[in-house]
Amino acid sequence: MNLITNASEAMAEQPGTITVTTGSQDCDEAYLNHSRIEQKPPAGPFVWIEITDTGCGMSDQSQQRLFDPFFTTKFTGRGLGMSATLGIVRGHRGAIILESAPGVGTSIRLLFPAFREQGGTGESDPKAPSAPSDSRSHARTVLIADDEDAVREVGAAFIESLGFRAITAADGEEALRLFKEHAHQLACVLLDLTMPRMDGVSAFREMKRIQSEIPIILCSGYPEREATERFTNKGRAGFIQKPYRLQQLQEQLERAQKGLRKSQPE
User: Fold this and answer.
1) Label partner for 182 (CA 20 to 30 A): which of 58, 138, 172, 227?
2) Contact 261, 214 (CB under 8 A)
3) What is the 3 state secondary structure string of 137-193?
4) Strand ranges (E), 56-134
5) What digits encode the pLDDT tens for the residues 13-41?
6) pLDDT of 142-196, one tens digit each?
7) 106 forms bridges with which residues in the sheet?
């Protein structure tokens, strides 16, 4: 849906065509090296969905920034659709092939590794993050609390691309309720400081009272010093400023997980 929305906006008020195509193909290493995702998947069978439009197309500069969170050539408040798409495809260890030129239009193909039937020759990538199993679910769930829909959407896509399960809350009271319900499953909480009904400071205090060992990463659009002045030596596991990139979130989660393991008895 994000791709179709972008394609529609690329045609503006001019008449044009959006084509949605699906298929399957065997992809070799040379083809997959054209993927816009840094981690290239191994060669093999893939299924794909492709969105093609006859709109305005993109310059090389726009293509380089296409997946940056909050980057948009449209009006303010947009720019998260492609970032969310990137997180979803990366989570499936897939690929994104982009072809575009100004005045010509754009074609984006999303490729997902095809499932091999039992007895096939496919092997999983040992370097890729494995999906959380039921036996490890207690340590593979992240609660994202933020009152902005777009931030929750992108954050959840990022979390799932890192091999975690994401649950989301739109305000402090909902976050606290979900925290109580899933406390035994949570690996971490990503907590916005400014939310309706209950702000992040109050939610943080209550969460720490319920389960003090669960890492809580504070999140804000303000700089860290300004946003966390009320949290000095109060057990926060980290801080991340919005808008954030996948790598920044991954670093914060890894740091939080290391701290959690150190705090647990042998």
Assistant:
1) 227
2) no
3) HHHCEEEEECCCHHHHHHHHHHHHHCCCEEEEECCHHHHHHHHHHHCCCEEEEEEEC
4) 95-101, 105-113
5) 788 899 999 999 999 999 999 998 888 99
6) 999 999 988 898 899 889 888 889 999 999 999 999 999 998 889 999 999 989 9
7) 53, 100
Rounded Cα gap, residues 37 and 67, in angstroms: 10
Q: Answer for the pair 147, 171: CB distance below 8 angstroms, yes or no.
A: yes
**Cβ atoms 221, 242 nearer than 8 A:** yes
CA dist 191 and 178 (Å) reads: 12
98 and 7 Cβ atoms separated by less than 8 Å = no
Q: Answer whether 18's CB lies under 8 Å from 53's CB.
A: yes
Residue 249 pairs with which residues in a beta bridge?
Answer: none
pTM: 0.53
In 3D, which of 214, 209, 219, 220 has the Cα closest to residue 259?
214
**The residue to which tokens 């260890």 are assigned:** 93
Strands 165-169 and 141-145: parallel
